[in-house]
Amino acid sequence: MSAPQSTTALIVTDVQNDFADPDGGLAVRGAEAIVPVINRAIAEAADAGEFVAYTQDWHPESTPHFAKDGGIWPVHCVAGTWGAQFHPDLVVVGPSVRKGSNGEDGYSGFTMRDPLTGETIPTELEALLRGRGVGRVRVCGLATDYCVRATALDAVRLGFEATLLVDAVAAVDLKPGDGANAIDELRAAGVDLETAPADPSPADKTPAAQAPAEPSHRG
Question: Which residues are catalytically annotated?
């Protein structure tokens, strides 16, 4: 019997090869190590009947977001490429919201920003959550100081209760301490801090405790 639908959702932010694989175009230190932690959070959420949504950077080959076109970032997560795909170990059990496909800055899972005009454009994430009666979100993924931070702040701004899974995130840390500062900022904005479920001991790893198999997903 499936669990009843919960009013809490888990948002898994940008666990893509270019961020999570050491060979990625914008690899985040320690990112691969948190994938199993995120998978445990996904399994826990699925067992509790929570909606699980994913976000992906999904950029064109040229965008003002990239350093080669005037931005600050190396080329990453170009639509349809290996770098834009989810890390192969990530369990995917819900829909993905793709951001930045028209060249926008896609930091938040909820909004995108035109890097030239500053215009803000919503993604479909809020509608997906509202349509399921979600009032609280838990956020994990990459990276603490950019897309995770922006997603959690937007969640609070939009009226959701928000929680950060502090051991299921990793930071870019362009400047030392950026990740820690982002967590402090989120706490001050009203975001709760939690840890993801612990890894069960070998004796506790019954079939029911295993993460579900990865289904096919868009992209």
Answer: 14, 99, 147
